[in-house]
Write a structure and sequence with these properties.
Length: about 325
């Protein structure tokens, strides 16, 4: 078996203040950007509307596309380049177009296609993909996404209540909340569109981060039960160092997979890869620099130590 970083004695907890300042600044910048530049952009899966991906024979004139659509009565359409210079997406999310989807799932997309073929030429492009979501379906998907997130939180809390005692559970929940806030800030800074793919990525990040925290906390409990006379500060550091080889191998292989998706996968899966890549970093960060110091602070205020330990084992977090 590959053995790396064994018997390390790195003082991770010592840098908790710097880590908290950095992560707090990142979250503030991300949410500040949302207030300054507008809130998140939602995909048509949630808002309803029409999305088409068009492949043109040659690079088109975007102004000509908008003029053709305006002339056909399809106004307020967003036209964006998608990948190379000949591929574009046409997005219609105005209230009028969303309402029109109620009468026919492909009504708006057909109108867009006919208008462009009439103006630019029948053979000037092909439709690579199209998505049409009515207002009712969009509302149902939104409700389903919210329920999925809330249910995942409830299951997480129930699991932590059974797996750990009060203090360990509180620290793990706070660390998970940190990951959610940091990931949301990252999504805004990257200007990623909120879609079902992004929701799935966020839920995956939560599970990944929680698993990492649980592994470290399990080692902490094992070390506490050994009854060794040492401050909790040293027990936490020792536990993180003992799980470091596993963490490096696990995170290394996972990041290799997500980077492969980020570089080689298409634009559809790339947002998921972005969020997962960031989630690996923030999950590792929170397990070491958020969960452990918070557990240290809680044990100092409300000690509930494992058998074989004494109150003297708890010392304040070192600056």
């Amino acid at each position: 078996m590959l053995r790396i970083l064994h018997d390390t004695k790195i003082d991770f907890i010592r840098h908790w203040r710097t880590a908290i300042i950095l992560t707090a600044a990142f979250v503030v910048i991300g949410f500040g950007s949302a207030f300054v530049n507008g809130w998140f952009t939602s995909s048509i899966e949630f808002t309803g509307g029409t999305l088409m991906r068009l492949k043109f024979v040659s690079a088109p004139n975007v102004g000509a596309i908008r003029s053709a659509l305006d002339g056909a009565g399809v106004r307020g359409v967003e036209v964006q380049q998608y990948g190379d210079a000949t591929t574009y997406t046409v997005r219609a999310q105005e209230a009028e177009q969303v309402a029109e989807q109620e009468s026919g799932a492909t009504g708006v997309s057909k109108k867009i296609e006919e208008a462009l073929r009439s103006s630019l030429g029948a053979e000037s492009f092909i439709v690579e993909d199209r998505m049409a979501v009515g207002p009712r379906v969009g509302a149902e998907l939104t409700r389903g996404a919210v329920i999925a997130v809330l249910v995942s939180f409830m299951i997480t809390l129930i699991y932590l209540a059974f797996r750990f005692d009060r203090n360990f559970g509180i620290a793990a929940v706070i660390a998970t909340a940190h990951d959610i806030l940091a990931t949301i800030a990252f999504i805004k800074l990257m200007d990623l569109e909120i879609s079902l793919t992004i929701i799935a990525a966020v839920l995956t990040v939560i599970g990944y981060s929680l698993n990492d925290t649980i592994i470290i906390f399990d080692r902490v409990r094992e070390n506490l039960r050994k009854g060794k006379k040492e401050p909790l500060y040293d027990t936490l550091n020792r536990s993180v160092n003992e799980t470091l080889p596993r963490s490096v191998l696990t995170h290394g292989t996972t990041i290799a997979a997500t980077l492969s998706l980020l570089i080689l996968a298409g634009d559809i899966i790339r947002p998921f890869a972005w969020v997962m890549t960031f989630g690996i970093f923030t999950g590792t960060f929170s397990s070491i620099f958020v969960a452990s110091p918070i557990l240290m602070w809680i044990e100092g205020k409300y000690p509930r130590l494992a058998p074989g330990t004494t109150a003297k084992a708890v010392t304040p977090v070192r600056a």
